[in-house]
Amino acid sequence: MGTVFKRDVARALSDATLKTAIDRTTVTAERKRAAALTDYPQFAAARERGTRIKDHVVAHLDHYLLEFERNATASGATVHWAADSEEACRIVLGICRGAGARRVTRSKSMLGEEIGLPHALEAAGIERVETDLAEHIVQLAGETPSHIIWPALHKTREQVSALFKASHRDPHKTEDVEAMVESARRELRDRFLSAEVGISGANFLVADSGAVCTVTNEGNAELTTTPPRVHIVTAGIEKLVPSLAHAFVLLRLLVRSATGADLTQYTTFHCGPKRPGDLDGPQEFHIVLVDNGRSRMLADAGLREMLRCIRCGACMNHCVVYRQIGGHAYGATYPGPMGAVLTPALQGAEKARDLPHACTLNGRCQEVCPVGIPLPALLRGWRDRSWKDGLVPQSVRSGLWLWRFAAERPRLYHLGTAAAVRAMRLFRRGGWIGRMPLAGAWTRYRDFPAPAGRTFMEQLRDRERGR
Amino acid sequence: MPHATPAPEPRSRPRVGLFVTCLADAIRPRLGFAALSLLEAAGCDVEVPRAQTCCGQPAFNSGDTQGGAALARRTIAAFEGCDHVVVPSGSCAGMIRAHYREALADDPAWLPRAEALAAKTHELLSFLADYRGWRPQGVALAASATYHDSCSGLRELGILDQPRALLREVDGLELRPLTGNDVCCGFGGTFCVKYPAISDAIVKEKAVLIEASGAQLLLGGDLGCLMNMAGALHRRGSAVRAFHAAEVLAGMGNGPAIGEEE
Amino acid sequence: MSARDAVLGAVKAALGRSRPADPADPAAVAAEALALLADPDAVRPALPGTDAAVAFAARVVSPKVGATLDRVEALADLPGAVRRYLDGQGLPHLLALQPDPALQGLDWAGFELRDAALPDEAAAFGLARWGIAETGSLVFHSGPDTAVLGHFLPLHHIAAVRASTILPHLEDYAAVCGAAPRNANLITGASGTTDIEGSYVRGAHGPRFLHVLLVAD
Ligand code: SF4
After folding, report:
1. What is the pLDDT of residues A226-268, one digit of tens each?
2. Which of A242, A268, A295 represents a domain boundary (last residue)?
3. Taking CB atoms and an 8 Å cutoff, what residues of chain A touch B235?
4. Which CATH class is domain C52-215?
5. Which atom of ligand 1 is nearest to the CA of A338?
6. Do B192 and A442 touch (CB under 8 A)?
7. How many helices and strands, by DSSP H and E, does chain B display?
8. What is the pTM of this model?
9. CB–CB of B168/B43 below 8 Å?
10. Is residue A29 lining ligand 1, measured as CB closer than 6 Å?
11. Which residue of C has its CA nearest to A271?
12. What residues in A contact B26, CB-CB < 8 Å?
């Protein structure tokens, strides 16, 4: 079963530096989130409230889309609609060309990654400056993000240092993280201020005002969206909230779950273009509302709950699989548990065949998810579909069929297990089996405890007879 | 989800159906007998329906919902006559309690029966502690042990304190904390053979933490996870020995550990 | 069909709206949305004590926000407090001053002032409209007297806020903010990043230092 996924997993697992990088960030993230929740005993209630807010919006999505469009337009924004990623990129490129843009700055947006905007800009010959520090690192390395909150999570400080030294005009001299951050600040400063277009995503779209909320800790979103003549927002249609007060309920959950802070350093609501008398701000403000599979998820009872996702990244920080293989092995924009649910929806179940299966269903992601998304159940839903669609490998199907055939026939089953345990004991050395035919997937890595000579059912029958 | 809250019934003698689980039946019959004797000690009349095989979880979690449903029907039919169904595994108990209704969601004839069985199905250690108010008496084991909380028991059934409360009553047993006690060991049922390399990476980390606890014994409530961890520990030459907690509580902690000759 | 019609049509179909043109009952939706904001105390952290300004001051200097704080009696004392801060940091008395009449009318003798922050401005000073005690945030609204970049370009961001404008919780700001300005900036500490190995470093792109002057007024 040499899938691309398995190949990438093998590569990731053999990369000790990657594991170091993953651990350095996720261990800190897990600790900080836990501490933030200790200080916030209202978390459980807030999570329930946040879940209901998102469910409410999703249930009335048409209403809120129209309300948002009305208010955003009234504020002077131009609202665009895109059914899929190609259309979204086409719209963004059209605006950039109209603005005569040679250089655009971009503030981190996972939706931008999802629709392939970085690539589209490059293909159109427009210089793209990523302003989020991690996105800047990823851009310099010619890679893609490996985490939705920390796109450069897969890089150790040593790797970042080497990268900056090779590409910054005036790189850091000392090997501390402070000096590296300072180096990026120097490198990016003049580019921030010389772009014709700034592109951001949206953390929330506020329906009753038409405002777009961005959150960052670096302040790069505002530096990206204020100086250029044009600000373009690309946002998924699920980002709506009824009002500012609703956004705050979700913000408390988002930030604590993502970084363990109580609020991002810079939380900004953008509403329309520069107004008369304003001292700065863009002349044009465009909002591109992107569907790209979301209405399909809305129609699908087995995926609708995924539209609650506020992209906090907690599920991947707490995922045992993500923490071994990192984000790139998932082969898509969104990694970890949420990615394993989203990617088949966005790219097709066949292409993402492994993702829903490469999970132990341990439930920790659901436990930490701030909007209570039943990720394991949604993943199992994908397994159910892939079984029905014949995407489960034949070896697995026949194995399970044989076992089920027996398990539905208790007498046969008990005879079969009695025979099987005897056969297995032929391979034991002491109490353990180190190698056994058909069990290579287990015994390649672990020893298998040799079964007792007789099954429980056999022994019980003997006991009862002896009574 | 924690159990709903029927009062403990210390004086009645309920008829309890023991669901041995396919793993215990084949690999570790001792666990089945430990469960049997604990339930009897806790004042239950225990039956072991011969029609039982496997709860169906491997099929269900592989996406073969129909296969899972077929085995769910068999299990329901075999056990619905009992007052309670008790399972020495949080994972299999969780399958019956939480997932039979999903597997049979499209089957109006069986759905109510699935719900009824779910309502009276319990994981062994929580059943002893919460429903029978049972505590071990005169059980001794001079050893240090650490406890791994298997995921289904912990998150689907809310089992966390019960095993510890019971194990604390074992004379001479010292319980040591395990870092990451609530983190998956990488077993995941068929996951561990479908994606063995990932599973191995996860369980290796777990094995290091288990050894770092300094305990002589690894205890848990799910045989599958215990086999995974014990197998990884043994492969790396560790001296830590693994038992299902029920075995220790039943006074069988001096017998062979998982992977030791009878 | 336009993309707008396609997306809205797909959403409506997914929601099972009987006639595609059917609007949801706006009053019912609004009532449901409002109900989701009931009992806000159940879902937000409680403030220590009853005085929002006291809680705000404590919060601003806590590690969660990591800013420094000075107190003054009245707006007229602000130039002196700014001078104290600049002196303490060894900075020249050079300042980008937010063109807010309340600030510009003060006595800035001895300062060299600028209307707008330069890309490498050392220090800028502004007056926040509100403070939020729950998070230790300062709120600025963009407009003719407030540039957005004034909060982001300088290395040292100095911000005054009146004690009487400190609000207890984020929702209280939502209640008083009025019509949305072009930019509402909630600023909670200095710029920071955890993008390299999760370790926290200040001054990523925005200010490295935030100094808050709480005006008793
Ligand atoms: S699924 Fe939940 S935990 Fe994961 S990113 Fe989305 S909101 Fe966060």
Report:
1. 999 999 999 999 999 999 999 999 999 999 999 999 999 999 9
2. A295
3. 445-447
4. alpha beta
5. 1
6. yes
7. 15, 8
8. 0.95
9. no
10. no
11. C182
12. 417, 420-421, 451, 455-456
